[in-house]
User: Fold LacI family transcriptional regulator from Flexivirga oryzae.
Amino acid sequence: MSATLREVAEDAGVSMSTASKVLNGRPDVSPRTQERVLRSAADLGYHARHRARRRTNSVLILFDDLISPYSLSVLSGATEAAMRLRQSLIVERMLSDEQPRGLTKQWFDAVAARGINALVAVTTPLSDRELGWCADAGIALVIVDPIGTTTRSTVSISATNWAGGRAATQHLLDLGHRRIGFLNGPPESQPARERLHGYTSALTDAGIEFDPELVAGDVYAVEPSVGSAHTLLALPDPPTAVFASSDASALGTLRAAMERGLVVPDDLSVVGFDDTLMARWAPIPLTTVHQPLVEMGKVAVERALTLADDADAFSHPFQLETHLIVRETTAPPRTHSDEGTTAG
Assistant:
């Protein structure tokens, strides 16, 4: 069996990034170290296999979901970057009805054998073991909107989710809302947790105690969010506004409001997050937090290719700026005097 990059580095007594530099022909390593790494690679049977596959520069972009407007926006940016850089972009989906969640060591080795030296994983959960297999295969990795907690050495691309969550909530507070519901995303999603923290931060600064009864949902999807929104709107003291942590969840909230005979935004204000096409094409144009999904796809491909060339290029997360887009689903809360007003 061919040796891994980790085994070569350990045998030569150097870091994996140094071993990667030598095996990629980088000149910024001392001759003595180069000789030691190349000797280890030759002894372990690594050098020939990896030199053969390094002749091509391909990026694999891996999705957990490939049908949402979110994923399609990220893919659009990734495609644009790959075309501009004249690199091959291979698109795959991690899950299907027949395949279980999770990636094997054989999968990473097969990716490397196909000549792919960079991987962009979009909202795809990767365990520490899977991250190790990726590194052992010599594949540069960039994660877009990571699921789970990443290590300091993992390069991730995301938006300023905390700031976006805070801006959405502050917008509703500024309109006069005090009972603000929150539709959450997957509990293991780092962006979802950051949006929730932005929501609670804005409430705390406004002197409003966090009420866990006003938080519902655990998925970025329309249908489940309809039920979650009904749960909030059926409370004895229901919210006058809902901040949904995705546009899909916001659309579910709009449907629930309609089913309950509520008028948006007169009876209920709704804010989403993403600013995908569905926000602009919603029955009522959606107030939402714009995150630069196309740019995130571009940056992810650019960073992955840079890492494939230089493993020490950077090892920290990148956050692109969000901003609030105010459309037609938010307004001041209806007061009792408003309810009693009739046309004269």
Remarks:
- The radius of gyration is 24 Å.
